[in-house]
Amino acid sequence: MNQKEIQELIRFVSKSGVTEVEIEEKDFKITIKSEPKRRKGDNDDNVVYIQQQPMQAMPQQQIAAPAAPAAPAAAPAPAAAPVEDESSKYITVKSPMIGTFYRSSSPDKPAFIEVGNNVKVGDTVCIIEAMKLFNEIEAEIQGKIIKVLVDDATPVEYDQPLFLVDPS
Question: Of 31, 59, 111, 138, which is least packed with CB atoms within 10 Å of its CB?
Fold first, then answer.
């Protein structure tokens, strides 16, 4: 729709007494609203509001986007996976759930593990609080803690890296 057609539509709305017209085509949407005529003595001019919104051109991509992350989520994700950016010899311990990460069982207790500590399979490495439940996260690998990647009492996402472990 070009500017001349829009102006003609505005004139039509003004003269006809219609208070709202909405036109939707495949590449745009236009809404024209006007206030009804006022009583004598008031200003007789109609006020016309024009609201033009571009239409979403690619709804198929929006539908396809949520399906892509669902495929990796369907496969069981291990809690420990190799890390490429630090060094290929380190293993990343990842969060198995969404929640709040805690390094100790309470603020006045020492952390379960520190950098440099050795862990065995089954050792508690942290707690993740989810929906008022405190879940102890156990090591699934044996090795030495190289780095703690998350600050205490901060939110974590599913599959977010928590620790780097040297398995050697």
Answer: 59
Q: What sign has the CA pseudo-torsion 22, 23, 29, 34?
A: negative
Q: How many CA atoms lie within 13 A of 49 on its CB side?
A: 9
Question: Contact 136/124 with Cβ under 8 angstroms?
Answer: yes
- What whole-number distance in Å separates Cα of residue 158 and Cα of residue 153? 16
Establish how many alpha carbons lie within 13 A of residue 33's alpha carbon, considering only the half-sphere containing its beta carbon.
5
Task: Work out the burial of residue 66: count CB atoms within 10 Å of its CB; fewer than 13 is exposed, 13-18 middle, 19 or more buried.
Answer: exposed
3-state DSSP call for residue 165? strand
24 has pLDDT over 70: yes
Q: Convert the pLDDT of each residue in 106-145 to its tens digit.
A: 999 999 999 999 999 999 999 999 988 999 999 999 999 9
Of 110, 102, 105, nearest in space to 148 by CA: 102
Query: What is the dihedral sign for C-alpha 33, 39, 43, 44?
Result: positive
Asked if CATH classification 2.40.10.270 holds for the domain at 77-166, the reply, yes or no, is no
Domain boundaries in the chain?
3-57, 77-166
- Residue 86, token pair as written in the block: 């630090």
Residues 103 and 144 sit within 8 Å (Cβ to Cβ): no
Contact predicate 17/37, CB 8 Å: yes
